[in-house]
Amino acid sequence: MARKIIIDTDPGQDDAVAILLALASPELEVLGITCVAGNVPLALTQRNARIVCELAGRPDMPVFAGATRPMVRSLVTAEYVHGKSGLNGPELWEPTMPLRKEHAVDFIVKTLRTNRDGAVTLCVLGPLTNIALALIKAPDIAGHIHEIVLMGGGCFEGGNTTPAAEFNIYVDPHAAKVVFSSGIPLVVMPLDLTHTTMTTRTRVSRFRALGNKAGVFTAEMLDFFERFDKEKYGSEGAPLHDPNVIAYLLQPEIYQGREVNIEIETESALTMGMSVVDWWRVSGRAPNATFMRKVDDEAFFDLLFDRIARL
Questions:
Q1: Distance between CA atoms of 23 and 133, rounded to whole angstroms?
Q2: Residues with catalytic roles
Q3: pLDDT for the residue numbered 161
Q4: Cα-based torsion angle of the residue sequence 273, 75, 136, 160 in order, rounded to the nearest 10 degrees
Q5: What is the pLDDT of residues 214-237, one digit of tens each?
Q6: Cβ atoms 95, 127 nearer than 8 A
Q7: How far apart are CA 194 and CA 198, in angstroms?
Q8: Can you state the angle between helices 297-308 and 13-23, rounded to 10 degrees?
Q9: CA 303 → CA 9, 19, 219, 242, distances in Å?
Q10: Helix, strand, coil % over all residues of the chain, rounded to 5
Q11: What is the pLDDT of residues 49-105, one digit of tens each?
Q12: Which of 56, 55, 54, 8 has its CA nearest to residue 35?
């Protein structure tokens, strides 16, 4: 039976690849895609999500717009990485599939209340605002969530937005704090892991050589996406962060991590949004998340090539 998921996202080139991977995988039943402000403002993230659904041949996929800004702080975006559109690289179009009228938070609450057997996994690729708002609005849904698999945070790698903070957590640390203190099973794909799933010339060429529209679109996105990280890190390519969330559901055996306690900093100006990861278990605090540290990057990319080729 296919695993039921909701994808909460702020596309973003790497979000787009994650969505394509999910929609190309029959093991997953995507119940809906909920959008949040993050990499770019909400008007663009919901548009980008619909473009990606159309690219995947899924104009039937319900897409919902959610929070326009973080719970407490002003919105910080990342056009400097993703470009003005959030999906710079390929030629984009105006999607014709509709945006659903229901608010993303209401869709999340309704869906979890309908699936009370704990069958739904939340796959969170951006700031955690929509998820936190849903938990605050309807605390009863926490018990209906199978698990939350999210991309965010870092430990030994530090931050990519400030010295201490990774972007998704930094944008809305107060929302992250709600989620990390919720008691819901969490699986975290941090920078420590995602910085090992690097695009390279060879890998981008393989996407292009798939010969289908989705493969070429992916290659064109990554051509643009790479330039920022090459300059910043001196690397051959860019880390493909968000698809790890979906790949973990499909091939958990290629991932390694451990249960740890993670607390989110919301008070210090210097370390705002820091994920305080108790890797060495020195705090005495009970584990609240599985923090993934390693992945077989060849297997990860082979999965991406295989699935995106099917679209």
A1: 26
A2: 241
A3: 97
A4: -30
A5: 999 999 999 998 666 666 667 778
A6: no
A7: 8
A8: 70
A9: 21, 14, 16, 14
A10: 40, 20, 40
A11: 999 999 999 999 999 999 999 999 999 999 999 999 999 999 999 999 999 999 999
A12: 8
> Residue 171's domain spans which residues?
3-308
Q: Mean per-residue pLDDT for 281-308?
A: 98
Count of structural domains, the chain: 1
The CATH number that applies at residue 39 is 3.90.245.10
* Nearest by Cα to 125 from 227, 270, 21, 257: 21
For residues 244-281, b (16+ Cβ closer than 10 Å) or e, as one string? bbbbbbbbeebbebeebbbbbbbeeeebbbbbbbbeee
Nearest to 189 by CA among 264, 146, 247, 245: 245
- pLDDT over threshold 90, residue 240: yes
pLDDT tens-digit series, residues 107-162: 999 999 999 788 999 999 999 999 999 999 999 999 999 999 999 999 999 999 99
Separation between Cα atoms, residue 88 and residue 78, nearest integer Å: 12
Of 168, 125, 175, nearest to 11 by C-alpha is 125
